[in-house]
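Page 37, top half.
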Amino acid sequence: MNEKFDAPRGRTWVGVVLMMTLFAGCGERSADLVVVGGPVWTGDSATPWAEGLSATDGVIDFVGSEELARDRIGPSTRVIELDGRFAMPGFLDTHTHFMDGAFRLTAVDLRDADSPEELARRLAEYAEDLDHGEWIIGGDWDHERWGGQLPDRSWIDAVTPDNPVFVTRLDWHMALANSRALELAGIPEDVASPAGGEVVRDASGRLTGVFKDEAMPLIGAHIPEPTEAQRDSALRAAMRYASSLGLTGVTDMGSWADLETYERARRSGELTLRVYAFVPLSTVDSLARRVQAAGRGDAWLRIGGLKGFVDGSLGSGTALFDEPYSDEPGNSGLFVSPMDELKAQAMRADGAGLQVAIHAIGDRANRLLLDMYQEVEDAGGVRDRRYRVEHAQHLRPEDIDRFARLGVVASMQPYHAIDDGRWAERRIGVDRARTTYAFRSLLDAGAVVTFGSDWTVAPLDPLLGLYAAVTRRTLDGAHPDGWIPEQKIGVESALKAYTVDAAWAGFMEGCSGSLTPGRCADLVVLDRNPFDVDPEALSDLHVDLTVVGGQVVYSGE
């Protein structure tokens, strides 16, 4: 599966090496791009620092001294003078819901609503500009901001009488519907909770409008799908936003409709960041046929990944634990998907050489998923699978070493640690919290750890993730020395999780992740050196330039 990608414009990797050799020998051709005048962190452990680099036809052809980099400047060379600023490989986000995030850019924003009244006020204000009957979606509310009480449709019915509402919690594992949405979806009062989900009722048995995990499609299936034109427009906006944050590539845990959107952009030459598009694990057979017929794509758009779920989320009380929740003794979470079903799908994926990434939050979910990956390897033999646990949030201490032994990637989102850290101990107690987002323990064990955002569950900005991993200071300011400070990591480890290790986790190391001759010229310029600032200032860094394939796709200078 670890196939080499074609270089941009059809150049083969052998041709790239030949071009580099000829260029170094005679100097007849100047570079298209030269970066000089400040520290360059390459991400390459052999030569982590440089003074300059150059690129031709979208491929890096020199990394080294400033003097030699300047020698490659010609009449048509674009020169990026750092003036003491900091250059590094472009950030790679290994876990997004990118098209969902694209539509969230114009949806109602409830993320920081801190009371039921504020929730209702924002929905009322948003509804004022909508047509009669137009759905209100998005939201990203967080009930922990108003004390932990789940919302109720009675809070919002009066202010949204003409518009169906289905707004999700920020973790996307539960959503609130108003009465109009229940009516349009034909939900009866006696509706049963489906396997892997819950329809929430109050003490009297009345539907509150909250639907968890696999119950959410009862409403979601009735929301009109966006048109192709709407999808294409949303993608363009999201790519501009991502570029402004220094992202040069994302892994999208999306749908087949999302993949079709990326394919249209690829055909029209509109992709300005690299995408590794995952589709649901339940569609493994369709993806296997697709890959067999058409391959895994190229350096701009790659396919071959499958995403599944073991459990839900901590905030929704659906993450699966060995022991009950500390604040909810009768609840230990739930299976979103049965393990025997996941195993059968993973076995078929393994037979087709596809990459598997499965969501696991609770300690029981993580243990069972690692067991399953071991069974798949035992059945299929040793090979370069790079299987992934998405989130790997709450681990039993005895399971941490297993990530390295099994070669399983811990695909993690550091912002969640400083967000959930505000209230997680109330849910699971101090002891279980000690190995929550255990960055340091996993790295010390030799595991590959990669970072992402889980956008739109958390902000897309990788600098916020960098800050979170290094400081672990919770959003409420309650842990100035870091929540579970023994799990903090250094700047270089965090940057590697966003670059070189992120590329490896997506079989993209032939193009992305480091500033190395022969790799794609994907880089970002920051206003300051993150190695030199106080950790508390990491989130205040700014992206000045983003370059993908040798082309400047964002300039904030």
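Page 37, bottom half:
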Amino acid sequence: MVKKLTLQALEVLLKNRFKEGFLSLKDLPQPSTFKDMDKATERIVSAIKNREKITVIGDYDVDGVTSTTLMKLFFEEIEYPIEWIIPNRFTDGYGLSVNIIPRILGTDLAITVDNGISAVYAAKLCKEEGIDLIITDHHLLAPEVPEAYAIIDQKQEACEFPYSEVCGAQIAWYLIASLKNALNVKINMMEYMELVAIAIIADMMPLQHINRAMVIAGIQSLSKSTKPAIKAYFEHVQKTQLTSEDIAFFLAPILNSAGRMEDASFAVDFLSSTNIYDARVRLDRLIDFNTLRKATEQDITQKAMQQVDDGDKVIIVAGEEWHEGVVGIVAARVARAYEKPCIVLTQGDEGLLKGSGRSFGKCDLFGIVDGCREYLEKFGGHQAAIGLSLHINSLEAFRMQVQVNFSEGAYIKEIVDPDIVGDLHFSNISFDLTALVKKFEPYGQGNPRPKFISTNVEILQAESMGKEGEHLRFSFVQDGIVMQGVKFKSKEVFNAGQKVTLTYSINENHFRGNVNLQLMVDKVTV
């Protein structure tokens, strides 16, 4: 049963998400609270003074791309030449791997950003080749840790940095801050914060504690940015400022699409553009990648949906030559549609299936699949998302074992969406309510935008809108109070006069100088 909600109750509920209150940049811990930060800084300063060859190795997601760009921009600003590499998802695999070593031979100092903490064998090869290795990463440590000159990762036991949930770009930013102090150079750290804010949101870090402070500062700085890439993006979207949701749903997918469809280095080239003309051309290329990504994803999602067995507790689907770069997104879409965990596999060479899985609700998908390692060639991830590969001959045995593991785990499907904060009557929807909701922005992971539920609502009007009728526009009434609403990406059919229960968030719709409140409808239950 969902509780009736008042403004006062909502304020208490939202405040409880921030145990430390709202932090600001003055609350940021010092760089030296990271284990090995001072050691890494000294080694990099020494490399600069001795004109050693430095190579930065990143990753192909938004966090890895922004981390690499931060390091590239910093070394450009201090006029020190470096090499940088972003591994290709399809030919190199993830992070600092054996495949990368031939490309960094002759390097004196290699620095990883947003990867490296699991690169045990590649680190050994670096040592054999006389390459000093500094690992900066934010992921969990495996039982065996790579041997490196320095490791900066807040999840190390001996690390005194007080926040465990930070992303790779934040650690890169801290390394730059430490280098700035050690080299005594004048650089504006706020200009680097712009990219950090994008990474925090895209990598789904909780928007609490210092993450919230850094995102707010970064978003404010974005609106005044002198970076050609940011100016070109603002031009493209015809906006003067961005929200956390703008970054999560529009900018991040564009940056991600290069790595998903071809090569993430295109995204680094875009973010580090030195003039607006290059930035525009590079942005167009990324938008083309994203358009292709959306079409490919839509096509595979339809094919995957046709394979779903309703009897499965964990959905497992496989196809021939489905694009490896989008199977994770497809798994997330199918999981949401069926409200079940989903694994999507694609068959490539020699009968090997590769794929990704996404969980649903509180189900520990990593734990379920971890009990099936005998069937797997490769496996990794965390509770909500996994990556795996297996031979096609093992598929049926794997499928059966996954269903058994799910049943034995006694996973209960969540009946109520955890983001719903209470039952709201239309009479309580007001500009006071939206003003209160705004106080707790930015919303995202760890601080979800509050969703409301309203019961015994009547549909007055429901019609399709959009170029291909892919969205719905509504008029609703509850006890004589009328509200407008929209539901995106839905071709469901509703009729006037139907009594329904709504799940939604509330939006201020600015149009031609007028401001109206509208419901952003998540679910309509007849």
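Margin note: The mean pLDDT is 93.
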